[in-house]
Amino acid sequence: MKLVCLECLGNTFFCVLASRPTLLREQHYQYLKKGLRHLSDAYECLDASRPWLCFWILHSLELLEEPIPTNIASDVCHFLSRCQSPTGGFAGGPGQQAHLAPTYAAVNALCIIGTDEAYSIIDREKLLDFLWSVKQPDGSFVMHIGGEVDVRSAYCAASVASLTNIITSTLFEDTPGWILRCQNWEGGLSGEHMLDLKALLRWVVSRQMRLEGGFQGRCNKLVDGCYSFWQAGLLPLLHRAFSKEGQSALSEQRWMFEQQALQEYILLCCQNPSGGWWTSPATRDFYHTCYCLSGLSIAQHFGNLRSHHELILGKEDNRLAPTHPVYNMCPDKVAQALHHFLQLPVPKDKKPSSDADPSSASSPAPPQAERPDS
Ligand SMILES: [Zn+2]
């Protein structure tokens, strides 16, 4: 679908649509390709987040529909195999402690590569052991043994477990109830202890800023490119949830946010002229590059079980591949991974007994590096 400005039909000099914002495709490709082989000193602080760098770069490349050279894919597989802990799960770097965040990043990166070599690296039995080692009696998950409880850890656990087909009947017992208790007053909570979807919708659409068109992370935070995915990616999930409820007023062509305004913000305000993204064009990093591209993809593609509609701001060449809003990988890679792992049996559940010695699970943890934007 080609956009035409309804205000001026493209005839005004200052019309944003007439100026056709451009995705700097080649510059982004060169920036990303270089990052797979060489990182500047600025990335030293992410030494405990190295699988993330693999995921951010590989996912950005797949959104740009740039193939990953076979030798680089194999090198990434080898590196991630060294990040896998002998006790299951992946660490932020070789020899470090297993942690749910790099586990999510490593599993996604391997599924984006999508080769037998990549899939075979994931030790599913030990991954299940690791998930049990961080599962808490109330249904929550800690990020690592001895670490903090965070709703993001539940997401990482659910994502890797569903992708690799290791969900047992008890692994996520009490987790939905725990997540429901995390909904705060801004997002409301109904009397029936169901997630209040309308309150959640009201909260997330209120995060899209009227002036900039991009999203803020929470009330009173500045707009930021990375929330283009973290917030806009929620809208397809809410669309699906409302659709299952039978809401008849749902659009069959648009998500419930200003897709055009988000594309304008990402393309006009966040692109570094030399490739890469951040919140402003003055600087860049791989984290924001990944999530600006992911948000741009969400804003370009509407899809449900019945239809697919594209809304590409600017040139047709700005079009990215669609991304799966749950896993944040391209849907074909999600389908391929599910097809592969669903052929394998779910590992035998080794739920730890409740009277196990808790002191054995409290070894000191190395600090996990924050991403550049915290
Ligand atoms: Zn950010």
Automatic annotation (TrEMBL):
<comment type="similarity">
    <text>Belongs to the protein prenyltransferase subunit beta family.</text>
</comment>
<dbReference type="InterPro" id="IPR001330">
    <property type="entry name" value="Prenyltrans"/>
</dbReference>
<keyword id="KW-0808">Transferase</keyword>
<protein>
    <recommendedName>
        <fullName>Protein farnesyltransferase subunit beta</fullName>
        <ecNumber>2.5.1.58</ecNumber>
    </recommendedName>
</protein>
<keyword id="KW-0677">Repeat</keyword>
<dbReference type="InterPro" id="IPR045089">
    <property type="entry name" value="PGGT1B-like"/>
</dbReference>
<keyword id="KW-0862">Zinc</keyword>
<feature type="domain" description="Prenyltransferase alpha-alpha toroid">
    <location>
        <begin position="23"/>
        <end position="193"/>
    </location>
</feature>
<feature type="region of interest" description="Disordered">
    <location>
        <begin position="345"/>
        <end position="374"/>
    </location>
</feature>
<feature type="compositionally biased region" description="Pro residues">
    <location>
        <begin position="364"/>
        <end position="374"/>
    </location>
</feature>
<dbReference type="Pfam" id="PF00432">
    <property type="entry name" value="Prenyltrans"/>
</dbReference>
<comment type="function">
    <text>Catalyzes the transfer of a farnesyl moiety from farnesyl diphosphate to a cysteine at the fourth position from the C-terminus of several proteins. The beta subunit is responsible for peptide-binding.</text>
</comment>
<dbReference type="GO" id="GO:0004660">
    <property type="term" value="F:protein farnesyltransferase activity"/>
</dbReference>
<dbReference type="GO" id="GO:0005965">
    <property type="term" value="C:protein farnesyltransferase complex"/>
</dbReference>
<keyword id="KW-0479">Metal-binding</keyword>
<keyword id="KW-0637">Prenyltransferase</keyword>
<dbReference type="InterPro" id="IPR026872">
    <property type="entry name" value="FTB"/>
</dbReference>
<comment type="subunit">
    <text>Heterodimer of an alpha and a beta subunit.</text>
</comment>
<dbReference type="InterPro" id="IPR008930">
    <property type="entry name" value="Terpenoid_cyclase/PrenylTrfase"/>
</dbReference>
<dbReference type="GO" id="GO:0008270">
    <property type="term" value="F:zinc ion binding"/>
</dbReference>
<dbReference type="GO" id="GO:0097354">
    <property type="term" value="P:prenylation"/>
</dbReference>
